[in-house]
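As a warm-up, study this chain.
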Amino acid sequence: MANASDISNQIIEAVMAQKLAPGARLGEQQLAMLFDCSRTIVREALTGLAARGIVTVSARRGWYVIEPSQEEAREAFEARRVIEMGLIRCTTDVNKTAIKQLKSHLTREKAALKGKDVGLRSFLLGDFHVCLAECLGNSLLADTLRDFTARTTLIAMLYQSSHDAAQSCEEHVQIVLALEKGNLVLAEKLMQSHIGNVQATLKLDPSGADPLAQLRSALTPLHGKAAGKTGKSAAQVLHTSVRKPGQRSAKTSDDPSTYLGALL
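Now compare it with the structure written out below.
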């Protein structure tokens, strides 16, 4: 019979292997049957994962894997950048045992790249960062990075990252090589570049800050169709109807945007 920790670890591993997608439903009864345990134990595991930001719960819909927003995506990568660069910066020496463990991990990464198990490849590429924290002697940050790596894996799936796995592995190799040579400044710079490269390949919409962007795009006239008597498209009307803080709306009876804006 599995305990709550076993279930949590399995779910995290499945996320890092890209086997659980953002928004995937996690039914309590199904998980209880799968792990041969009570729903109470399953609920304990899911509650813990919710506190760690991996799953979320709805009173009507149940438990689901999170679907990070664009802002949450940016925050997650920034958090990883701060943690991982800081981890290297605070390191004074990397012993031979640590380098040996890291190289062993890289060997498995390279083997996975040549194989057909995409899930294993994805897991190992993400787990490198957890392994690095462990090898540098900080188990607390290793646990933290495991959760952040799972979150950024979900982000990569949700926002269709095009980052090449072989490039990611090569960047890991260069980081370990710098650590082996004792060049911690270079290792830190390489880590910053590596995380930035992964983030840069996400298909984040630069207009995501505009709350009406999706609606404005949907209501744009098709194939240059006439916009109407006002000479404005629906998207333009929506844009002009959004008041800035402290700005009073013009109450003109012949301006249809006043009424449309009030509805929205």
